[in-house]
Specification:
Blueprint (H helix, E strand, L loop, with lengths): L1 H10 L4 E4 L3 H20 L5 H8 L2 E4 L2 H4 L4 E4 L5 H12 L7 E4 L6 H5 L8 E6 L8 E6 L5 H13 L3 E6 L6 H17 L5 H10 L6 H8 L1 H14 L10 H8 L17
Parallel strand pairs: 1-2, 3-4, 4-5, 6-7
Antiparallel strand pairs: 5-6
Length: 271
């Protein structure tokens, strides 16, 4: 998600400081971004000149202090609230007073994340969808203390990317992930009850007009991410039964079958 957000941001004309925890991860991310931009040129989606400008817009770094020296920070770490709070606390000690902090969280509270900083008025949710360089929707989440100026800046940024913003309250899972819970949850229940196998369930859903079936989409997103979001929503709604995770989700994660990123999830991507 971080690479996808960085890609669309650079293509929109911004300078991008790309942070990750190691040089190897950064190199892999930049290589993937450049490949995706080149593919856009090959398909006629991106002008060659714009592509070269975008590829030159990146400053990679493994220093969080350097990453904080921007006007807008977008965090795209895993859906672990303590990890995200730790990142924002460190960013707070390095960032300029005017810098806006944003989280790409898909389910965690913006207010809870913002509480680790002294800039709750300059803290907002920017939830992109996977893959970020394709999906047009971005949820802009207003926390209880987010200022109108911050919201207007976030909306302008999303518009500059050529995407569609929808303004949300800071509620568990916001709009899309809350609405999407039955798409995943009912599919897991059908699978767990042996009503059909995962491929058949995917085919049935696609026959109704969905671009991807639930298990294909989980493999794309990452089984670990999907499980973390499901648990987060379940806890946020005080164990509301309709949001309950399924044991299959936990088994997939604990066995390392996380989807495309590990080469195997519900489907085999080793080829």
């Amino acid at each position: 998600m971080g690479a996808g957000i960085a890609q669309v941001t650079a293509l929109a004309g911004y300078q991008v400081v790309l942070y990750d925890i190691s040089e190897d991860v950064l190199h892999k991310a930049l290589t993937g971004i450049q490949t995706a931009i080149n593919q856009g040129v090959a398909r006629g989606k991106t002008a060659a000149e714009a592509a070269e400008t975008a590829k030159a817009a990146f400053t990679p770094t493994t220093s969080l202090a350097e990453a904080a020296q921007v006007d807008l920070v977008i965090e795209a770490a895993p859906e672990i609230i303590d990890l995200k709070r730790q990142i924002f606390a460190e960013l707070e000690s390095h960032a300029a007073p005017h810098t806006v902090f944003a989280s790409n969280t898909s389910s965690l509270s913006i207010d809870v994340l913002a509480a680790t900083t002294h800039r709750q008025d300059r803290f907002v949710g920017l939830h992109f969808f996977n893959p970020a360089y394709v999906m047009k929707l971005v949820e802009v989440i207003r926390g209880d203390f987010t200022s109108q100026a911050t919201i207007e800046m976030a909306l302008a940024y999303v518009a500059q990317l050529g995407k569609t913003a929808v303004l949300c309250k800071d509620t568990p899972a916001f709009i899309v992930n809350r609405v999407a819970r039955p798409f995943y949850g009912e599919a897991f229940r059908l699978l767990g009850e042996n009503a059909a196998d995962h491929a058949t369930i995917d085919k049935l859903l696609k026959s109704l007009g969905f671009r991807m079936g639930p298990f294909e989409l989980i493999d794309l997103i990452g089984c670990d991410v999907n499980f973390a979001v499901t648990r987060s929503v379940y806890e946020a709604y005080f164990q509301e039964p309709k949001y309950r995770p399924h044991p299959i989700q936990q088994r997939m994660v604990e066995s390392g079958r996380l989807g495309r990123k590990t080469g195997r999830g519900f489907y085999d991507y080793s080829e």
